[in-house]
Amino acid sequence: MSARTDRSGTQPGVVPADVADAVARARPRLGTLATPLVWYDDIPSTNSEALAMAETGVAEGWTVAAERQSAGRGRHGRVWVSPPGAGIYLSIVLRPPAHAVALLTLAAGVAVADAIETVSGADARVKWPNDVYLGPTPATGKIAGILAEGGLSGTRVDHVVVGIGINVQAAALPPDVARRATSIEGELGRQVDRGAVFAEVCAAVWRRYRQLAEGDRAGVLDAWRARGAGTLGRRVEWDDANRTGRGVAKDVDASGALVVETNDGVRMVSSGEVRWT
User: 179 with 142: CB under 8 angstroms?
Assistant: First the structure.
């Protein structure tokens, strides 16, 4: 473990025994991930720290995790609420080949769902582009999210940090978050081994990442479609320039864009906020 002090002046701590033991058992399946695993008891943002380290040239697989984040973030500048002891908050430095970059978020979402199902037996599902949920609809039961942020070397993507937040235990959340979020244990009504979830997430991310890197984009997309079947065929809204687009989600295309059938024809939604109605 690195003795480096993060940008807020916080020293890394000791990896909790449940996580350390599970990672050690899974080590043959982790590739370069969690090498090293740098753990903080409290940090503003694991993604910010991992991005800073990526800029210094650390090797692929460098992983930053924390017991709590004071300024965790999700897509579109949202706060990712990170209460201590209740979740998994980790960020992984990857240095992907160019052909793997576009589908990294979708691949990570599938990987998180794979891992949760492996450990808990729960039917984990994905919602475009970066949410994992349990429950009958994508509007309820969100248990995890992914935030991928990259850095450039000239015009080429030099690194991508994949940040993953998972709600493992039930915790007090702000009302606006509680309306759309839940936890694995809250949905299942029983305890789940946090260390096992952490290790399986790393193993699944490595497996899906290698699948992309080796050129099997179709395999990743098919896996996403299987996990995302509950969202396809549903009506969606999104902000498009100065108007709101509306239609029915049909598929994801080869670039990872959401394919939406509208009254004006088929649209490809590749960014922005999508609301499922």
Answer: no
Q: Do 235-276 and 17-227 have the same topology in CATH?
A: no
CATH architecture of the domain formed by 235-276: Roll (2.30)
Per DSSP, which regions of 60-175 are E strands? 63-66, 87-94, 125-127, 131-133, 142-153, 156-167
Whole-angstrom distance, CA of residue 180 vs CA of residue 100: 31
Confidence of residue 2 (pLDDT cuts 50, 70, 90): very low
Provide the residue type at 127 as one letter: K
Type of residue numbered 119:
V
Give the span between the Cα atoms of 115 and 44, in whole angstroms: 26
- 9 backbone dihedrals φ, ψ, rounded to 5°: 90, 10
DSSP β-bridge partners for residue 243: 240
Strand-pairing partners, residue 272, are: none
Domain ranges within the chain, ordered by starting residue: 17-227, 235-276
CATH superfamily of 17-227: Bira Bifunctional Protein; Domain 2 (3.30.930.10)
Q: What is the pLDDT of residues 166-205, one digit of tens each?
A: 989 876 555 555 556 678 888 888 999 999 999 999 999 9
Distances (CA, A) of 48 to 30, 69, 199: 23, 11, 22
Residues 163, 93: Cα–Cα separation, whole Å:
9
Instruction: Classify strands 235-240 and 156-167 as parallel, antiparallel or unpaired.
Output: unpaired
Q: Whose CA is closest to 165, among 131, 189, 140? A: 131
